[in-house]
Amino acid sequence: MAKVIWTVKADRLFDKYVFNAFLEYGQKTSKKWMQERIFFADRVAKHPESYVLEPLLTERKRQYRSCMILGRFKIVYYYAKSSEIIHVVDIWDMLMNPIKLSNRIK
Length: 106
What we know:
The chain is globular. Strands 1-5-4-3-2 form a five-stranded mixed sheet. With 106 residues, it is of the alpha+beta class. The protein is built from three helices and five strands. A hairpin with a 4-residue loop joins strand 4 (73-80) and strand 5 (85-93). Helix 1 (8-25) packs antiparallel against helix 2.
C-alpha cells in the first residue's frame, strides 16, 4: 500500500476550500469535503494508478493524475513508484482558467 503525502500548498488549499464550504453552505458540505478526502486517500493508497492521467499535464516529466471530487474540483497528484509515495500537489477548481491551473504545477 502506498503512502499519501500532501504538499503544504495542497493541504492549505484543501483547508481553505473546507472553510469556505462551511461558511457558504454549512457543516454538512464541509463534512462532505472531509469524506471525499478520506475516500480519495484510501483508494489511491491501494490503487495509485486508478485515476486518469491529467490531460492538461501530459507533457510533463511526471505522470500527473487527477481525481474529480464534488463535481467541480480535481485533486492532482503523481505516484513515485520507487518510493511508493503519492504526492498530492494541488487542488483545482474547474471553474478557473485551465492554463493558469496547469501553470501552478512546476
